[in-house]
Design a protein that fits this description.
Elements (H helix, E strand, L loop, with lengths): L15 E7 L7 E8 L5 E11 L3 E9 L5 E4 L1 E8 L4 E10 L3 E10 L1
Antiparallel strand pairs: 1-2, 2-8, 3-7, 4-5, 4-8, 6-7
Length: 111
C-alpha cells in the first residue's frame, strides 16, 4: 500500500527456489543457502529455516551476485531462534529477495 494506492502481486508457486549450498542441520557452525526469485516483484521473506548449533549469538550475511560477477550486500536478520532441545537451534531468517535475483545467505554460530 502506497498513499491511496493498493498494489497486489500474484506469484506463481514456482517463483522462489531455495537451494542449500552447505546446510549441516545444526551440526557444523556454518550454513549457506541460495534463494532465487524468478518473479518480477521483490519478495519479503520472513521465515527461512536454518539449522545451527545452539549458541548465544550468530552472524548472518546476505549478498547478491550478478551475472557479471558484481556483489551487493543485502540486509538479513534473524527473526526467531527455536531451541530444539538436542544441542541445535532452528533460526528463522528474514530478508528482501530482489525481483529476478539470487541471494546467497551465510549464517555462522559464534562460540
Amino acid at each position: 500500500m502506497e498513499g491511496g494506492d493498493i498494489r497486489i502481486d500474484v506469484l506463481s508457486s514456482y517463483s522462489i527456489q531455495v537451494r542449500p549450498l552447505f546446510n549441516n542441520y545444526g551440526i557444523e557452525p556454518k550454513a549457506e543457502i541460495e534463494l532465487a526469485n524468478s518473479s518480477n516483484t521483490d519478495i519479503h521473506m520472513s521465515s527461512i529455516p536454518v539449522g545451527m548449533p545452539r549458541t548465544g549469538t550468530y552472524c548472518i550475511k546476505a549478498v547478491s551476485i550478478s551475472s557479471r560477477g558484481e556483489i551487493k550486500d543485502y540486509e538479513a536478520r534473524i527473526n526467531a531462534v527455536k531451541d530444539n532441545g538436542d544441542g541445535t537451534s532452528t533460526l528463522r531468517i528474514g530478508t528482501l529477495l530482489p525481483r529476478n535475483g539470487v541471494l546467497r545467505i551465510t549464517v555462522e554460530a559464534n562460540f
